[in-house]
Fold this sequence. Notes:
By secondary structure, this protein is of the alpha/beta class. The chain is built from 13 helices and 14 strands.
Amino acid sequence: MIYFDHNSTTPIRPEVVDAMLPFLRDGYGNPNSAHTLGQKTRKAIEEAREKVARLIGAADASEIVFTSCGSEADVMAVYGAAQDAWHRSNGGSNHLVTTSIEHFAVTGACRELNARGFKTTTVDVDENAWVDCEAIKAALLPETVFVSVMAANNEVGTIQPIAEIAALCREKGIIFHTDAVQAVGKIPIDVQALGVDLLALSGHKINAPKGVGALYIRKGVRLSQLIAGKQEMNRRGGTENTASIVGLGVAVDLARREMQAHGAELERLRDRLETGALALDGVRKTANPVKRLPGTSHLCFRGVSGHQLVVGLDLDGYAVSSGPACHSGAVELSHVLKAMRLPEKWGRGALRVSLGWGSTEAGIDGFIASLGKLLGKLRESAKI
Length: 384
Ligand code: PLP
């Protein structure tokens, strides 16, 4: 199988597995225990924390809290900041701002807070899934406490003007969170240069295992606890997942060292893929953002459904993904494509090809050949 679905999840790198195995076998001590076994795992966790802090430019490792996934980090940021501000203002600060292309972890948490009396303004994006800082500014109210804008979109890869939005929020004393699950490890992220208060990341998008993530919490930012308990410096209850945290530490270190060269190579492969795909009949790029992730390509195909392409390519040995969900034969565009106001005739034939560690030129060339044949077959059988 040639894997081109890295925005969905990534393979675990052997270096990561090797570092994790001792903690799955003998390193089972509870990192909160005083004995030697516990202290060994504590040391390994703290080393991983240092590595995550280093990758994202945090001033201090204590600003990193490990979570069970990127979704939990997002929810912890949204609930934690909103609830804390609400309590401190006796319910006066109750307005949130987010965008129409966020991950469900963020939108779901905002929706739940709305049910508890908060109000949320959802800012629209343009046809390239780009968030305009002026639109965020226009959405702010005197009672706004929290703004959340993703760093890079998971479907089309658009990179957002995070530093600009963070500066705006800082000026107004509003907490700013960015969901950087798709950005960390793929493009340079420096939380201090960006000026963000909170940032979520996830292990399984960067060749670490599933079930581990982290939230960067800038020193001084207060969050209500989502899971009560004394672990993670009194910020998140739950015994730490030592092996996965160690794996995340190795993965972020590899990403830090390889990002520049690897990013350039992914860009080259992505451009090769797009040149090949766009030479086929009835194909367009879904968006043309000014800045986008190096390994993400999103294309639309006339007259076929994304689902047909995913299934056909799978039979040929290629794993890719289509944005639209298929419900009983009816195609519904994803919330991101809808927010971009992509016409349905194109959106139904949407395909996301996301490259990453292990992607090769030969893989791309084989994929284009398969895609060309499949398109011909599908269009022939539909008499298009
Ligand atoms: N945010 C974005 C942008 C994502 O793409 C994802 C995963 O697809 C998440 C959050 C959730 O991460 P996790 O799967 O670790 O919960």
